[in-house]
């Protein structure tokens, strides 16, 4: 299938060290903006920096980020899929 993305595992922060250099999907909640990076709280309640996403596209806190894991366990983000103001898998709501 031409143009298809490679299979990408969904991970949490604990799995980032095992996926350095790989493209992954990370589901969670945006909690802060630090410089040009978004801080993302993962399903295992850890914070991960996401670089390279257009912050003007962040309209709701819950989302899935597609990106490559950097050696410092942050992500170089490629795509953001918003999930809205609440998300059942996180069992949490936006504050």
Please, could you describe this protein's structure?
- The protein has 95 residues and is mostly beta strands.
- Helices cover 0% and strands 49% of the residues.
- The protein has a domain at 23-82: OB fold (Dihydrolipoamide Acetyltransferase, E2P) (Beta Barrel), CATH 2.40.50.140.
- The chain has strands at residues 10-11, 23-34, 37-42, 47-51, 62-69, 75-84, 86-87, 92-93.
- The strands form 2 sheets. The chain has a 5-stranded mixed beta barrel. Strands 7-8 form a two-stranded antiparallel sheet.
- β5 (62-69) and β6 (75-84) form a beta hairpin.
- The chain is globular.
- It starts with 9 loop residues before the first strand and ends with a strand.
Shape: globular
Order of helices and strands: EEEEEEEE
Rg over alpha carbons: 13 Å
Largest sheet: 5 strands, mixed, barrel
The count of helical stretches stands at 0
Mean pLDDT reading? 83
| CATH topology term of the domain at 23-82 | OB fold (Dihydrolipoamide Acetyltransferase, E2P)
Number of strands: 8
Strand content: over 45%
Percentage of residues in helical conformation? under 10%
Poorly predicted sequence stretches spanning 5 or more consecutive residues: none
CATH class of the domain at 23-82: Mainly Beta
Instruction: Write out the strand line-up for the largest beta sheet, numbering strands in chain order.
Output: 2-3-4-6-5
So, the CATH homologous superfamily of the domain at 23-82? Nucleic acid-binding proteins
Overall CATH architecture of the domain at 23-82: Beta Barrel
The separation of the N and C termini measures 41 Å
Class inferred from helices and paired strands: mainly beta
């Amino acid at each position: 299938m031409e143009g298809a993305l490679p299979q990408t595992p969904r991970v949490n922060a604990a799995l980032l060290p095992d996926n350095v250099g790989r493209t992954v999907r990370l589901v969670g909640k945006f909690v802060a903006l630090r410089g040009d990076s978004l801080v993302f709280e993962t399903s295992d309640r850890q914070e991960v920096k996401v670089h390279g996403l257009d912050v003007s596209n962040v309209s709701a806190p819950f989302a899935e980020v597609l990106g490559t894991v950097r050696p410092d366990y942050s992500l170089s983000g490629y795509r953001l899929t918003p999930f809205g103001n609440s998300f059942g898998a996180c069992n949490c709501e936006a504050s």
